[in-house]
Amino acid sequence: MIPIIEQGLLLSLAAMGVYISFRLIDLPDLTPDGSYVLGGAVAVVLLHSGHGWVFSTVIAVLAAGAAGAVVAFITTRFKINSLLASIMVMTGLYSLSIRVMNAPNLPVPKFDTGKIMNYEQIVGKTPLDDLLGDVPASFEASGLKAVKIPFTNLGDGHDLLIISAIVLASIVILSLFLKTEFGTMLRGYGRNRFAVKVLGVNPDLFAYVGLIMGNVFAGFSGALFSMYSGFADVNMGIGTVVVCLAAVILGEIVFGSRQPIYGAIFPIVGALLYQFLLTFAMKYGYRIGFKPSDMKLLTALFVVAVIAARRFKKSEVTV
Fold first, then answer.
1. Which of the ends of the chain has fewer CB neighbours closer than 10 A, N or C?
2. pLDDT at 118
3. Can you say how many angstroms the Cα of residue 139 is from the centroid of all Cα atoms in its chain?
4. How many CA atoms lie within 13 A of 187 on its CB side?
5. Rg (Cα) of the chain, in Å, rounded?
6. Hey, where are the domains in the chain?
7. CA pair distance 239, 3, nearest whole angstrom
8. Which residues are bridge partners to 145 per DSSP?
9. Which CATH number is 2-110+147-318 given?
10. What is the mean pLDDT of residues 185-202?
11. Chain segment 138-182, per-residue pLDDT in tens
């Protein structure tokens, strides 16, 4: 149960990014498929370089945000539809992620060293240190440093506590931002671009901010998931946008017309529901011939079915 919630919460961060682009600013963006991978790739490579997980995550987030800025530049400068611009950038990010990792995939390093180490060097102490409480001076002088990541994957609730704190902090920061004057105009940009322009503000600014924010959340999710799973892979982002969109739609179904915290809660609840549905399908789907590889297809069909049902319901109300 705990791993399901952990994975659902990690997915919800990327879903928050998709919510911002698809719902908040109404600029469909497929870049998260690539920025999710880029975030993971940059984070793992920096861990290999001996940097801490916080620094690695920050740089990964900035790299993903830069991808969103490129999409915004293409969209606003060349007047190209955001969907088409994001497809071009997403395609380029596939090659860029391989270039960053210098391989299609890269595991999270356990230790930042290229030397063969004995037991004392690996654990950073000798068996007597537990009694004496000292760290061997030789280990500190050697410059060998274990790469620390926030996740243990022990299923004891430690990872869940950290991930929950990160997600909660993300919701609070996003909601506080959307309450500001600029955040209010950002939300207004998604509903009426012309109204924002009348206020004397360049609407292109909101396109930049919204698309950067959306990809920042995707890169953040990818970086954390890579550290959580123990690797970064160039294919791990395939279908991210569709899955996240499914999560957003599930959240909207649960809350209906209500929009608590400006709808920022939709991706969280939807991602958790999606993860539970995924687990249920993988556990019991074999009885009807379901295979794990069919999940992407079912997710796509689910999104199409929900959108079609909503359109049909709206048309009935109009008639």
1. C
2. 45
3. 37
4. 15
5. 22
6. 2-110+147-318, 118-145
7. 21
8. 112
9. 1.10.3470
10. 86
11. 334 444 445 688 898 888 889 999 999 999 999 999 999 999 999
